[in-house]
Write a structure and sequence with these properties.
This protein is mostly helical. The chain is built from 13 helices and no strands. 57% of the residues lie in helices and 0% in strands.
């Protein structure tokens, strides 16, 4: 992991300037149903610089349907995703039947088979919806092309918000992804790999710039992703500590304690100015 206890004390000055008001700018996307999230603190948004390459959407297997109206298909499948996510989490994939799902929907068994052909298809609908949302929202996150440190800060905060919003399907897929057929399962794994690559590229750029220590960039990307996933996997424990902003700020302190090169040790040729952080968001929350 990125934590270094010995180095943490040396980076306490970072904590005093940690920004909660991170630079995020996202395009307007489709609204996310409230069933995906609770009343969670959302990170405030602010204009940033240009976009950087992001996670790939990938090629997803098409689930055939007998219905020709795409809007109707989308509506029915959205209902299936919501109902199935709740039931699979409560009962488990194997202990939930097609009839259980249909009884909680607004249509009958015959109608269901016009939209999917199996329970595995329904699980993959949940996975597809999650993968599309992760890809879309990460691609809309605006990083700072001049500061790897700032980019990691922005990207991590953005991904934590995504995980918080979609924590139920993320938790479900951690538990049930093994029940997907090989091709859909490979697509889910490819999306996870793309998220790791997203953070790996930021870390690699920071290493090249002399801002970050020479650590395995891929492993660092995996660490960052998994730290965000704790919001979904250990929601109660995370909430017991504080709100989403507090979690993000604490984890950024720990991540940078293990990554950042002390300014006085950075090479003269690739030295970058330190990121200036404020307490703007903390003051606004206090009001």
């Amino acid at each position: 992991m990125l934590y270094r206890v010995a180095g943490f004390a040396g980076w306490q000055r970072i904590r005093s300037h940690r920004v909660a008001h991170l630079t995020l700018q996202t395009s307007a996307g489709p609204p996310v149903d409230a069933s995906h999230h609770d009343n969670e603190t959302e990170m405030p948004a602010k204009a940033a610089t240009r976009k950087l390459p992001s996670v790939n959407r990938g090629q997803h297997s098409h689930i055939p349907t007998a219905i020709k109206n795409p809007e109707r298909v989308a509506h029915r499948r959205t209902e299936l995703i919501e109902v199935a996510t709740k039931m699979f989490l409560e009962r488990g994939f194997h202990n939930t039947s097609i009839r259980d799902i249909v009884r909680a929907c607004s249509f009958n068994v015959a109608s269901l088979y016009m939209y999917v052909s199996s329970k595995e298809d329904i699980l993959y609908l949940v996975a597809q919806d999650l993968m599309n949302n992760i890809a879309q929202r990460l691609s809309e996150t605006v990083l700072d092309p001049d500061s790897p440190e700032r980019s990691l800060e922005i990207g991590f905060a953005s991904y934590c918000q995504i995980v918080s919003r979609f924590r139920r399907p993320i938790r479900l897929l951690y538990r049930e992804v093994g029940f997907l057929p090989p091709e859909p399962r490979a697509n889910v794994i490819a999306t996870v790999s793309s998220v790791i690559t997203y953070f790996e590229n930021i870390v690699a750029k920071g290493i090249t710039a002399g801002v970050f220590r020479k650590v395995p960039a891929r492993l660092a990307g995996l660490d960052v992703m998994f730290i965000a996933h704790m919001i979904a996997l250990h929601t109660r424990e995370v909430r017991a500590v504080g709100d989403l902003d507090a979690y993000i700020n604490y984890q950024l302190d720990s991540i940078f304690a293990g990554l950042l090169v002390a300014p006085e040790k950075r090479g003269a040729d690739n030295r970058t100015p330190p990121v200036v952080r404020t307490k703007t968001a903390k003051k606004s929350r206090a009001r």
